[in-house]
Each structure stands twice: as structure tokens, then as C-alpha cells.
Amino acid sequence: MTSIISSLSATQISKLSTSTIASLTSADVNALDATKIKALSSAQVGSLTTANVALLSSDDVRAISAPAVKGLTLSQLGALSTAQVTGFSAAQVVALSTTQIEGLSTSQIQALNATQIASMSSAQVATINSAELALFSTDEIAAISTQAIAGLSAAALTNLSSTSAAALTKAQIAVMSSTQLNALSSDALNTFSSDEVKAISAKALAGITVGKLTTGNIANLSAAQAAALTTTQFAAMTTNQIDALNSAQIASLSSAQLATLDSAELALFSTGEVASINAKAISGLSAAALTNLSSTNAAALNKAQIAVMSTSQLNALSSDALNTFSSDEVKAISAKAIAGITVGKLTTGNVANLSKDQAAALTTTQFAAMSTNQIDALNSTQIAGLSSAQLATLDSAELALFSTAEIGSISTQAIAGLSAAALTNLSSTSAAALTKAQIAVMSSTQLNALSSDALNTFSSDEVKAISAKALAGITVGKLTTGNIANLSAAQAAALTTTQFAAMTTNQIDALNSAQIASLSSAQLATLDSAELALFSTGEIAALSTKALSGLSSTALTNLSSASAAALAKLQIAVMSTSQLNALSSDALNTFSSDEVKAISAKAIAGITVGKLTTGNVANLSKDQAAALTTTQFAAMTTNQIDALNSTQIAGLSSAQLATLDSAELALFSTAEIGSISTQAIAGLSAAALTNLSSTSAAALTKAQIAVMSSTQLNALSSDALNTFSSDEVKAISAKALAGITVSKLTTGNIANLSATQAAALTTTQFAAMTTNQIDALNSAQIASLSSAQLATLDSAELALFSTGEVAALSTKALSGLSAAALTNLSSTNAAALIKAQIAVMSSAQLNALSSDALNTFSSDEVKAISANALAGITASKLTTGNIANLSATQAAALTTTQFAAMSTDQIQALTSTQVAGLTAAQVGTLNSTELGLFTTGEITALSAKAVSGLSTAAISGLSTSTARGITAQQLQAMNDAQVEAVIKAYNGV
Asked: From 27, 732, 940, 968, which residue has the greatest number of CB atoms within 10 Å?
């Protein structure tokens, strides 16, 4: 009998309850194909009976999904045959929990194949015990993944056979921990090949008990592995293990590893192995290990190793060992190490082989302890490297051992160490061996220690080599005139004021121009007039501009004209007021034009102006003239004022010009008037300008006029003002123009005003303008006028405006025109008003216009009248043409009073469009006669709202034909009385 299971889909199978699954018969289970088995969940799989699980074929077992495999109970797993276990896919094996793996029997474990084992996780592998692991074939051992092998416990590995251990791959060994490796037996470890030993990680190796490693294992370690052995492991190594190390491994050892060696262990090293010790690690060798180092092994030490050995290591070596060091090896000893060696250990040969740097590294204690023979063994190269502290230990007898070549080899850095006591008896021969560079760094104490004979051996260049600092400490009396003459300019400048003041007349006279050029102001300040008189004109000219300030007024008082004439432009430029005032008039008169110009503004400002001739004044620069104080400028004579030129005047300040009176200003030429700066012209007083001639006024520039004040402009005569060109009038500032008495301006001046200037005239000025001045205004000016200015006009003045000028009035200003001014506006001028102007006119202004004036308005102009203005117009003023030209909005804006006042002609002039916009209130003012004037079309045009305002009396007067123009919509808006009135009119009753 076929099972119903055969008819179910995989989806239906997946939805069966666990109780249904548990009740399946063997026939039902046999009806499950791979697809349906794959659809089973872990819970469904777990609900199968063990008998049913046993019925599953290997393929059926393989069909169970990996997630569902987790549902297999331990009972179910126990029921599986080894064939079924072998049928598990790798994915199913991976999906098994550690509990499920633990539940597998020994036979089932043994049934697992290499592919399945290769898929196992470290957690699954961790469940394997030593007995189970023993069941693994060598292929299966090798199949354990590198990720999973970490799960093997030490207990599982303890009894691993040599055969199985030999199956471990290099990759597996590379990830095994020290715990795992330590669990292996020595026989197991001994199966590792050279490459497999090298595969052990440094971390794992560091945890292995070193005693487990055979000499073969030790020999197979890589250099990196040898370096990874801990100091504890290294210290625990046997003599045989130490002896098994090779040169490559020894080369990788650390200082900490080497530090564990004793002298017996170090003695096991061959010369090649000694030579292979890394220079970085050799510092680990203890003094105790080195104490008995044989001469043969000591000789094996190379230059690089010796270079890093410490003092204690070197001192541990025997004299025989040290004696094996070659010249290069001695030189390889570090400066730090050599500085710690007991100097008595070094033979004269050792001393002679020391490098320059090593000799320099000897401490002062070592150097002071050196014997005469050792001092004498030093050569020029070594002496050249000695420090000042080392040389400071020498006495005069030891210094006397130095040859002239050795004296000359002393470095410029070290020579400062030679004491005055050591130098006191220095022979002339040795002193002559001192080089220019050495002398350059010797101190005043050292130089003063030398005898006069020694100093006399210095050549000109050597004298010049003496430092400024050292020279400043020498007693100046020691220096001969020859020494003085050989001093450089810098050295002369370095002499202190005390030294300079102590110099004799002969020494002063020995100074040359180059030296004098370098002297400081403080040095020059020590000179009196007699000493300054010793200077030639060339030496006067050589004085620096920085130092010249040091010359006192007293020293300059008697300066000859010849010497004064030698003063250069640059020197004069830095001289102070007191120095210049100290010079005689004759001396000042020797100054050329350029030299006068060189006097600083600060200095010129302090000179008594009376000292300056008209020639001096004429030679002043623009800046110098500008630097004269107002006191100096006010004190200038007429001749001095007259001597000023246009360039100088252009630089004068307003304060200087303010000191001028009209007579002094009159001395200025037209060019000079024109040169006055716009910044300074403000200084000219009204009094100075009062009598300015027309010629001079005409010389005023547009830029000058632009900054003149109203006070200054009012000070000018009418004739002066009349010289102003159109551009010059336009240059007058709005502020200045606003302060001018308007009557001073001619019609030409008025006509030349810019629009901005016209707008700037005050209402007082505008109101004071004459008819001629008003008539002189042009359209551009009128366009700029304000409402306040226009408000000052009367009808006669407004009548002077041309039609173009009327049209030019701005819409903003038009409101200023009074009704009085507009009352007599001609029809011609009214016609000139444009739509924009009319749009802003008030009802008062429009009412002021005559009917003729209003009648000039075009249709667009009428429409431009604002609703506000129209509402204030007297209705009777509007002609039927005006009425007809009103817009619908304007018609609607007429007040009921205006509408009620409209004449029959005005009512009849209304258009259908206008009528359509009328309000109920406006319509309510109509009587029957007025309403009777409406055409049928106009009656029809009335809005429903407006019709409601018609009186019954007005409706009653409608003709039959007109009444018939009333629309149904209009009737709907009427009240009963109105409707009755319409019916009566309609019927002619």
C-alpha cells in the first residue's frame, strides 16, 4: 500500500508537526525522497524514531540539511550505522554540535573519513580523546585543518604515536601551541624534520621545556628560533646544547641570552663563532665571561665588535688580549669606552695609535695623569683634536715639549684652555708659530700674558685677527702706533671709549680714513675741537652718518669752512638742530642746494629761521618747507615769503597758510595760487582773501574751489566770483553753496549751477532769488528741485517756467506747488503737465486749475487723476469730456455728493462701462429725469447691486422701451416696490 507521504510536497512535509513525524510508519519513511528529507527541520528530524532513522539510506542521511542535522538526538546518532556516518557530508559534520560529536561511538569516530575530518572545527576536534585520536589514520591526522588543530588537547596528544606524529604537516606544526608540543613525547618530537622544526612558531618554541630538545633539534633551529629562546631556556641549556649552536644561530643571539654564559661556556665558541657574535648583542657578555678569554679568541674579535665593547668589558681583558688589537682595532674602541680605561694600561704604542677623536675623548683626569713620555708621544693630528679642558692641564714645561708644528695644530676651539701661566714664558719662536686663526680666538688675558716681544712678532694680518672682545681688554699703552695703524676698521670701532679717550695725539693722528669711518658716536664724543682739527677733509668726509651724532656742539663750534665744505650730503642729512646751529653762518653758507635739501625736516624745524638766507629758503625742498613750524613761517620776512616757489607752496599746510595776511598772499603769482593744495587752501583766512585780485581769483582751480568754504567764497568780491567758469561754479560744494548769500550769484552763476547744486539751495536762498535768477533756471535744475523749494514760488514766478520746465518738475516735488501758484497756470503750461505729474496732484491743486486748464487734460491724463484727488474735485469743474474720459473705477469713486451735483449733461455723458461700475448709493441720487437719460443699454449695464439703490420714483419715470431693458437678474435684486414700479413702467401705466 502506497504511503500518503508520497502525495505530499516538500513544503507540506516541512509543515508536519513533530508528533506526526514521530508517528510515521516505516512505509512513510521509505516514501520520503531526498527533496522531502531535505525539507525536514531539526525538530522534525529529532522526532523521528530511532527505528525510522535506522531505515534511512546513506543518501537519505546525506539529504538531511546541515541545520536539520543538529536535531539528531544522541539516541538517533547511536542508531546510525558506520555506513550512514560515512555518508555524512562535510557540511553536516561541521553542523554537528560538540555534544553530538562526543556522542559518537568509537566505531563511528573510526568511520569518519579524511574529508569529514578536514571540515571539523577546533571545538569538535577538542572532543577527541587520545584513544579516539589513535584511531585516526596518518591521512586523517594530516587532514586536520590548521584552524581546527588548535582544538586538540594536550591529553589527546600525550600518547600520539611516532607514526602519527610523523604525519603532522609543517603547516599544522606551525600553528601548534607550546602546550600541545610539550604534550608530545621526545620520540614524537624527534620525528620532526629540519623544516618542521623550523616551522615551530617562536611563541610556541619559547614555551617548550628546553631539555626535551635534542642536540639535533638545537642544530635544526633557525637563527630566528634561536633568538626566540628565552633567557631562562638559554640558561638551562647543557654544555652539549651550547656546543651544538652554529655561527648563524650565535649571530642571532641577543645580549640577554649571551649574558647567561660563563667563561667555560664562552670558551666553547670557536674563533668563527666568536667573530659571528652580533655587535648589538656583544654588550651582553659579562666581565666574568671575558676575564679568561684566550688571546686566540681575543684576536678573533673584529673591529665592529670592539667598537661597541664597554669600558668594563675592555678592562676585563688581559693585557695580552689588549695587545692583540691592531692599530685599526685600537681606533675602533669607542670614545666612551676609552674614557673609562685606566690610562696606565695603555703603552706609548697604544697612545700613538689612538685616533684624533680617541685622544680627544681622554678625560682631563686621564690627560693630567699622562707621563711626560705619553705627552711627548702625542702627534700633531691628536693634538689638533684635544679640548680646551685637556690643554688646561698643561704647565709651561709640558707646553714647551710641543714643536712649532704642534703649536700650530692646536684647534681654535681648544686654544682657549691654555692658561696665562702656560703662556707666560712662551718663546718668540713658538709665539711666531701661532696662526692667524688661533690669535683670532685668544682672550685678552692670554694676549696680555704674552711678552711685548711675542706681541711684536704678530704680522699686520695677525694684528687684524685679534678679536674685538680681546682687543677691548688690552691695555692700549701696549699698542704701538704701528699696531694702531694695522688695526682693522672693525677693531678700531671695538676700542672702548675709555681706550679711545686714553689715546695720545700721535695715536689719534695715526688713525686712517677707513678706521675713522668705523668709529662710533660714543668714540667721537670723546673728541675736543683740537682733536677734531687733526682730521683731514678726507677723514671728515669719512665720518659715518651713524657716528656723526656723537660730535658735540663744542667740537663743531670752530669747524673751519674748508672742513664744513667737506661734509657730505648724507652727513648733513643726519645732523641735529644743535649741531647745525653750532656751525657758523659761513659754514652754513658753504652748503650746496642739494646739501640744504639734505637737512632733515626735524633739524630744519629747530633752526632759527633768521639764519637762513633767501638762497637757503629758495633751496629748501617741498618737504622741508612743509616742515617749517607755524612760528617759523609767521616769522619769515616778506623777502623770504617772496622767495618761495610753486613746488614749496604746494607742500605748505593749512596751518602755515593761516599765518598769511592779504599783503603776503598778494605776493603769490597766479602759478603759486594754483599750486596751493586742496588740503591746505582751507587755511586761507577770509581776511587774506578779501582783497584777492580777479587775476588771482581766476587762477584758483576747480579742485581748490571744490574745497573752499562758504566763508572763503563770501570773502571773495563779486568780480572774483564772476571769474569762475561753468565747471568751477559746478565745483562749489553743496555745503559751501548753501552758505553763500544768493544775491552774490549772477544769472550766469545760477545758470551754471548743476542740478545737484540747485537742489542744495536752501528754501531761504530759493525764496530770496530774483525773477531773473528764477528765469535763469533750466529744465535739469528744475527737475532736481524739492517740494520745499517749489513751495516758495508764486504764480508770477511759476509763470516764468517754459512748458519744458513745467514738464521737468519731478513727481516727488510737484506736491510743493501751492494752489495760489497754480491758480493762473496758463492752458499752455497746464497742457505741458504729464500723466505722471497729474497722477500725484492733490484735489486742492487740481481745484486751483481753471476749467480751461483742466480741459487740456487728455483722456489718459484724466484717467491718471487719483481716486483720492478726484473725490475732492468740485464736480461742476469737470466738463462732459472730462466725465466721459473717467475710468469706470474713477466714476465709481465719485462721492454721492459729487454724483448728486452732476448736471444733466454730465449724467448723459456717462458711458455704459462707467454706469456698470456705479454704486447703489450713486444710483440712489438719480431722479426720474436723470434716470430717463439712460439708454436701454445703460439701464441693462447697471449692476444688480446698483439697481437696488434706484428709487421707485426714478423707476416710475422710465419709458416703456427703457423699462424693458431691465434684466431678470436686476429684477431679482429689486424689492417689491421697485418691481411694481418696473411693471408699471413696462406697461406704460
From this structure: 732
Q: Judge whether 929 and 954 are in contact, CB under 8 Å.
A: no
Q: Where are the beta strands (DSSP E) in 873-949?
A: none
End-to-end CA distance of the chain: 115
Which backbone phi and psi does 57 adopt, to 5 degrees? Answer: -80, 170
pTM recorded for the entire structure: 0.45
Distance from C-alpha of 704 to C-alpha of 678, rounded to nearest angstrom: 5
Question: Phi/psi at 668 (nearest 5 deg)?
Answer: -70, 135
Query: Each residue of 785-816: pLDDT tens digit?
Result: 999 999 999 999 999 999 999 999 999 999 99
Determine how many CB atoms are found less than 10 A away from the CB of residue 412: 13
Widest CA span of the chain, in angstroms? 168
> Could you tell me if 27 and 6 are in contact, meaning their C-beta atoms sit under 8 angstroms apart?
no
DSSP 873: S
Is the pLDDT at 567 greater than 80? The verdict is: yes
Going by the DSSP 8-state scheme, the letter that residue 691 receives in this structure is T
d(CA 873, CA 886): 13
What size, in residues, is the chain? 989
CB 155 within 8 A of CB 182: no
Helical segments of 559-693, H only: 561-566, 569-574, 577-582, 585-589, 593-598, 601-604, 614-619, 622-627, 630-635, 638-643, 646-650, 654-657, 662-665, 670-675, 686-689
- Gap between the Cα atoms of 426 and 419, Å rounded: 11
Q: What phi, psi does 176 have (nearest 5°)?
A: -75, 145
Residue 186 pLDDT > 90, yes or no? no
Res 749: pLDDT: 86
Reference 96, options 77, 115, 81; nearest CA is: 77
Scored b (16 or more CB within 10 A) or e, 709-725 reads bbebbbbbbeebbbbbe
Return the closest-CA partner of residue 80 out of 99, 52, 102: 52
